[in-house]
Amino acid sequence: MIDRFEVRVRIKKLTTSAVLALAVGAAATGCARFPAPESPPPVAFGARPLPPGAQTDVPREPVPTSQNCDATVSLRPGAMPPPGQMPRGSTMAEILESGRLIVGLDIGSNLFSFRDPISGDIQGFDVDIARAISQAIFGDEATIEFRVLSSADRTQALADHSVDVVVKTMSITCDRLQDVSFSTPYYVAYQRILSTRNSGVTEPRQLVGKRVCAARGATSIGRIQAIVPRVRMVTTTTWADCLVMMQQGQADAVSTDDAILAGLAEQDPWVQLVGPSLGVEYYGVGIPKGQDDMVRFVNGVLEQLRSSGQWQEMYDRWLSILGPSNGPPQPVYRD
C-alpha cells in the first residue's frame, strides 16, 4: 500500500485527472499543497452525490454586524497567576482541577486547525492560540482535549458547557454575544470569494444565479446574500466539503474569510481568491456566557502573545501566504 507521503512524492508523475482526484481527497486533511496549474481542470464526468449534510438554495440569513453593540470591546485582563496556581473558586481553577482544557475546533480549516496527514497532530494558528491558553493554566501547552465542532455547533457547545473554549475562526458578532462571551479579537479577516481559475468569476456581481458554498453557521452567508440577492446559497458541514463541491462542479464559488479561503487554495492549484473585501471579521476566543474571569484570563494570554512577539511568530508560521502582517489587532477594553 502506498502511504500518503509516497503519494505526495509521486504527484508529478500523475495525470491531470489523477491530480484532481488527489485534491478532492486532500481537502479532508487540510494540509496538502500542489504546484500552480498549467491548464484548467478537467471536466468531471457523471453526477456525483453531494457531501453529507449539504443543503442547496438555503433561506436568507441576517447580515452579521459587530459595530451596533461594540462587540469587539472586551474586559481588561487582571494580574496573571502563575501556571498551576489558579485563583480558588475561579473558572480556571475548575479547568485545572479537571486535568485538561477542552477546546472546540475543527480539523478541516487548513492554516487554522487541521490534522497533519503525516504526524496525525492537530496544527494551525487557532491550535497555537489554544495551546497558549493551556500553557497559562497548566504550565503545559499539551494538556488539551480537542473536540471537533462544525461551525453551526460552536455556540451550543459553549452554552451547554461541553467545551471550555471555542477557538475556531469564530467571528465576534452582536447576535452571538447574546449567547456567549468573547475575548478581544486575536485576528482580523476579510470576506472574499474563491472561484476556479476558468470560471470567469472575479467579482461579486458575477455570482448572480451562481451556486456559492459556505459552511453552515458562518457569518459569511448573510453578507453574500445581502450583496448578491440572487445568489444560490449552498451550505455544508465543513469548508473542506465546499472545496470538494467546487471540484465536482456542484458549486461555482466559495465565500468566507480570506484566511480560510487561502487554506483551501493551498490545497488546489485550480482555485484562486478574487474580488475586493466584502466585509471585516474579527476572530475571538468563544467563552461560556457569564464566565467573566475566564474572559479576563484569556485576554491576558492574548496580551502576552502580542507583547512577546509570539503572535507574529505564529502568523509567520501559518499565515504568511496572506502577505506581510500589519501586526496583531489591538484590544479595546470597556473597563
Automatic annotation (TrEMBL):
One GO biological process term: amino acid transport
Family annotation (PROSITE patterns): PROKAR_LIPOPROTEIN
Stretch list, region Disordered: 46-67
Domain Solute-binding protein family 3/N-terminal: 100-322
Entry's Gene Ontology cellular component terms: extracellular region; outer membrane-bounded periplasmic space
Keywords: Signal, Transport
Signal peptide start-end: 1-28
Keyword NAD set for record: no
Alphabetical list of InterPro entries matching this protein: Bact_solute-bind_prot3, Solute-binding_3/MltF_N
Superkingdom field: Bacteria
SUPFAM superfamilies: Periplasmic binding protein-like II (SSF53850)
Matching Pfam families: SBP_bac_3 (PF00497)
The UniProt record lists the keyword Isomerase: no
PANTHER family for the chain: ABC TRANSPORTER GLUTAMINE-BINDING PROTEIN GLNH, AMINO ACID ABC TRANSPORTER PERMEASE
Family: Belongs to the bacterial solute-binding protein 3 family.
Protein name, UniProt field: Transporter substrate-binding domain-containing protein
Organism field: Gordonia aquimaris
